[in-house]
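$ ./design --mode recover --in tokens.txt
reading tokens...
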């Protein structure tokens, strides 16, 4: 209990009551009934103690001088005023105490109590300032997150950072004060602000900053020679996985792939909660993150299927906290094995299937198109047939932007998987749909890890073409949209995720080299066979309709029955293409700004509107 604070509060009431009576009698002390006044002070002291204990005012529940403590203090003062006011209102004339005493005394007492708490808070905060060893930083963002971060830094003597100013682009916040610091200007003013304050770093404190905003802020900071730090995602902070002070240096993933997603939790929970869910390819980058996100919605059972036991162990550790591999949540199987898929589905009877297992490396599949057929086409067929036989309610096929107007082995094989999925939707049992999106950042063998390895090795950094562009999104954000799409997709649809604007690979390479501080050379290697200069998310004949979610387009899939698959025509087509690929690629390189000419599809089940 805060004894000394209570003693001061009693003193505040005593002085306030005396002053209230004297003011009423215009300081005519001879008219004062001292005994009655003393009795009122005693009653006020007792009432303040009881009210304070009831409202936890003296139980150290509140931070000194906080808004919550002020609310509790207000309640205790009102209760105390009521306790002393009712007797004075009834007997005031008989005992010589003015009826206006509690009306005058209450605000005086409240003011005195509030001021003492404010001064105590000021003293505590001054004693808790960061040391001189703390690095001077600017905070970008004067909203709730920025204000909270500034307050935390300024009241933590162990903080590595000492905020010296705030930056915000909103004109109405110019010269605004947040937690004792002034908004010194906008991002364009960073060079001047950095010189004036001596700041060495810039902390981005904006809750839902997307890639374009972070890129702009990073460019401002580069002009001011400031190191850029970012906070963890807001979801991580709210869920307790990270703290507000867990700052890290901005990464290339933040700059090109951050697209904050609003998830309709009710829609998602409706088809995942208390359901048996199977994820194929659970050991891969997309599959593993899907499992982690699905687990949050409380499925009755989460089955993680992969043919790589080490990858299964890694995802089990991330979800269950152990990698014993002895539980039924991990399933070691290959989607190429039709009998295994049928037996698994028949035994485990999943309600929902996310089919993420696939081969994905374009140049590798150009060399081995037969493997794409076995895994991406026949493997998908096996999973679809097994799911249909088991009465699966929702089937979500994970596709790629390369399936839109496909030109490569990878694109054609994933396009076939989309069409097969649409054909099962026509059978009228369950929702069978596909979700299509572009490149994800950080997946195994993807561009960014490759670029990082090349830079660490001293270069050169290889880029296929100076004008090549790609769509990018972080893995967690892509999987959030995939899970959301599974809740709103209709049978036979291809749901296409909005991945923002395409990013020029050369710009990414230059930025990564600049961030590394190393003199790395860039070498152009030329487009690989069947590689597009610019990827597309929406194919010919598909429309950008977004009836349910602002970042998810609904297109109607083109069905292809299983018996229409023709392996011989697939083989013939890619044999011809491999012979002509080099000549076609050389012609495209001669026209730097042109796009790769589309391959005319053969009659192996990839035909249709282009």
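writing sequence...
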């Amino acid at each position: 209990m805060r004894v000394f604070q209570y003693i001061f509060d009693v003193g505040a009431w005593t002085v306030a009551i005396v002053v209230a009576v004297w003011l009423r009698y215009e300081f005519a002390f001879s008219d004062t009934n001292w005994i009655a006044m003393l009795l009122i002070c005693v009653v006020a002291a007792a009432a303040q103690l009881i009210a304070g204990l009831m409202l936890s005012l003296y139980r150290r529940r509140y931070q000194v001088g906080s808004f919550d403590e002020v609310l509790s203090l207000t309640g205790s003062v009102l209760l105390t005023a009521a306790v002393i006011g009712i007797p004075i209102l009834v007997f005031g004339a008989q005992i010589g105490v003015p009826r206006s005493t509690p009306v005058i005394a209450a605000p005086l007492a409240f003011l005195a109590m509030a001021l003492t708490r404010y001064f105590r808070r000021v003293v505590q905060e001054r004693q808790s300032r960061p040391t001189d060893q703390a690095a001077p930083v600017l905070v970008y963002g004067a909203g709730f997150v920025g204000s909270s971060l500034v307050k935390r830094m300024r009241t933590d003597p162990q903080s590595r950072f000492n905020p010296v100013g705030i930056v915000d682009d909103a004109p109405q916040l110019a010269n605004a004060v947040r937690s004792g610091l002034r908004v010194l200007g906008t991002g364009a003013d960073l060079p001047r602000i950095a010189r004036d304050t001596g700041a060495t770093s810039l902390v981005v404190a904006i809750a839902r900053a997307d890639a374009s905003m972070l890129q702009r802020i990073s460019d401002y900071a580069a002009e001011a020679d400031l190191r850029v730090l970012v906070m963890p995602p807001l979801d991580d902070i709210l869920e307790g996985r990270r703290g507000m002070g867990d700052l890290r240096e901005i990464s290339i993933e933040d700059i090109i792939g951050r697209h904050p997603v609003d998830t309709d939790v009710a829609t998602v929970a409706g088809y995942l909660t208390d359901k048996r869910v199977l994820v194929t390819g659970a050991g891969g980058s997309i599959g593993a993150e899907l499992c982690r996100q699905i687990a949050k919605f409380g499925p009755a059972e989460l089955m993680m299927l992969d043919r790589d036991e080490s990858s299964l162990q890694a995802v089990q550790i991330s979800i269950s906290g152990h990698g014993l591999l002895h539980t039924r949540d991990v399933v070691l199987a290959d989607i190429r094995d039709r009998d295994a898929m049928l037996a698994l589905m028949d035994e485990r009877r999943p309600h929902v299937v996310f089919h993420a297992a696939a081969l994905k490396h374009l140049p590798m599949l150009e060399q081995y198109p037969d493997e794409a057929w076995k895994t991406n086409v026949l493997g998908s067929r096996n999973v679809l047939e097994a799911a249909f036989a088991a009465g699966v309610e929702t089937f979500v096929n994970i596709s790629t932007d390369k399936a839109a107007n496909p030109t490569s082995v990878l694109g054609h094989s994933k396009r076939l998987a989309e069409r097969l999925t649409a054909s099962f939707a026509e059978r009228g049992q369950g929702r069978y749909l596909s979700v299509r999106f572009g490149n994800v950042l950080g997946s195994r063998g993807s561009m960014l890890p490759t670029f990082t390895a090349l830079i660490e090795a001293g270069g050169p950094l290889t880029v296929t073409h100076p004008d090549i562009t790609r769509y990018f999104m972080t893995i967690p954000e892509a999987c959030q949209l995939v899970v959301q799409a599974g809740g709103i997709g209709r049978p036979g649809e291809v749901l296409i995720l909005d991945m923002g604007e395409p990013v020029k690979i050369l710009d990414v390479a230059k930025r990564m080299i600049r961030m590394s501080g190393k003199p790395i050379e860039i070498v152009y290697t030329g487009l690989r066979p069947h590689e597009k200069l610019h990827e597309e998310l929406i194919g010919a004949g598909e429309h950008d309709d977004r009836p349910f979610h602002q970042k998810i387009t609904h297109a109607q899939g083109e069905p292809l029955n299983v018996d229409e698959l023709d392996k011989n025509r697939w083989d013939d087509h890619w044999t011809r293409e491999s012979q002509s690929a080099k000549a076609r690629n050389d012609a495209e390189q001669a026209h730097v700004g042109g796009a790769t000419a589309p391959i005319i599809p053969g009659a192996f089940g990839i035909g249709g509107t282009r």
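exit 0
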